[in-house]
From TrEMBL:
Gene Ontology biological-process entries: L-arginine biosynthetic process
Protein name, entry field: N-acetyl-gamma-glutamyl-phosphate reductase
Entry EC no(s): 1.2.1.38
Enzyme class: oxidoreductase
Domain Semialdehyde dehydrogenase NAD-binding intervals: 6-145
Purpose of the protein: Catalyzes the NADPH-dependent reduction of N-acetyl-5-glutamyl phosphate to yield N-acetyl-L-glutamate 5-semialdehyde.
Length: 349
């Protein structure tokens, strides 16, 4: 007999939480039991997410206290950074599986957490028990875990594009630029993210490092001195695009790189390698993956065999947040990792 799992979605009035709700609305095996929003208790979900009216017509947001009284098999925490730990602790005590989309358990080291996030971690034991939530790298561990982290959207974009090279020790030095859409800033506007100030800009807001770099260094086993990461805000809503200029540790032929990526991406349902031709499709842009859980990667190798450009594109709210979280939850619940995530990209947008 087929089992339906119950889900609680915290931070459900935000953008990432709203994406989790959108995915689960059509998920065959997971049903939303409660959508948690402290500030919007009692309001209909569709008043915040109007595109979900047909799916959640009668469901209202509940507060934290109500949520803890609801039965749940899996919990998604799309809450602000620094606020997830106490919620994680309570659910783990109840034996409930948790996927935390915030940054609170993404790093394995408490020392690294304090370095990159500016304060001591409130419960370092959680860092030891949590699994970093990229199924493409940690699928087996995720299946056995009760606590899985979310991923930084910029980090996910970079890691998925670069891990085939990193695990072969081919990255000597790398300069990364990530171009990001406005949805990365979340639902609450700031002076930097508010539309009137952000529109029609190409704003470099992190010239050398970004806190998501911590995840990249951790997952790719790179030294910080060898990596520069620049962040640029661009005129799109959804999407992240990584441009990685790489100095390879040895001279290679283009055919070797093709084989390396094809082997690494084989049996990874959401990773796509762009074709060599036509030229305008070789290096991907976020438009190609909008609304989907796909990550697309393309590359070009300099004639000297040592310099290389790798480009990866994702939808930051999907593969960079909610999509990967649901993918991880599928594995935690013993489901096929593609359940509820087979939607095609919307193109053009």
């Amino acid at each position: 007999m087929k089992m339906t799992f119950k889900a609680a979605v915290w931070g459900a009035s935000g953008m990432a939480g709203g994406e989790v709700l959108r995915i689960l609305a059509r998920h065959p095996d997971i049903k939303v039991e409660c959508a948690v929003s402290k500030n919007k208790k009692g309001q209909f979900i569709w008043q915040t997410h109007p595109h979900l009216r047909d799916e959640y017509g009668d469901l209202t947001f509940c507060d934290h206290d109500e949520a803890f009284l609801k039965e749940a098999d899996i919990v998604f925490l799309a809450v602000p950074h620094g606020t997830a730990v106490s919620v994680i602790e309570k659910y783990l005590e109840k034996g409930t599986k948790v996927v935390d989309l915030s940054a609170d358990v993404r790093l394995y080291s408490a020392k690294d957490y304090e370095k990159w996030y500016g304060s001591p971690h409130p419960n370092p034991d959680l860092l030891i028990s949590a699994v970093y939530g990229l199924p493409e790298l940690h699928g087996k561990e995720i299946k056995e875990s009760n606590l899985v982290s979310g991923v930084g959207c910029n980090a996910a974009c970079c890691i998925l594009g670069l891990f085939p090279l990193a695990r072969e020790g081919l990255i000597e030095e790398i300069r990364i630029e990530v171009r990001v859409g406005s949805s990365e800033a979340g639902a609450t506007p700031t002076l930097g993210s508010h539309h009137p100030y952000r529109s029609r800009t190409l704003r470099v807001y992190e010239p050398f490092r970004h806190r998501h770099l911590a995840e990249i260094l951790q997952e790719l086993s790179l030294e910080e001195d060898a990596v520069t990461m620049t962040m640029t805000a661009v005129e799109i809503v959804r999407g992240a695009q990584m441009l990685a200029h790489i100095r390879l540790s040895e001279k290679v032929r283009e055919g070797e790189i093709w084989r390396l990526y094809k082997n690494a991406y084989r049996d990874k349902p959401f990773l796509q390698l762009c074709p060599a031709k036509p030229a305008h499709l070789r290096l991907p842009e976020p438009k190609m993956v909008t609304g989907s859980n796909q990550a697309m990667t393309g590359f070009t190798l300099h004639e000297d065999g040592r310099r290389m450009l790798v480009v990866t594109a994702i939808d930051n709210l999907m593969k960079g947040a909610a999509g990967t979280a649901v993918q991880a939850s599928n594995l935690m619940l013993g489901l096929n990792e593609t359940e509820g995530l087979t939607m095609m990209p919307v193109y053009p947008v």
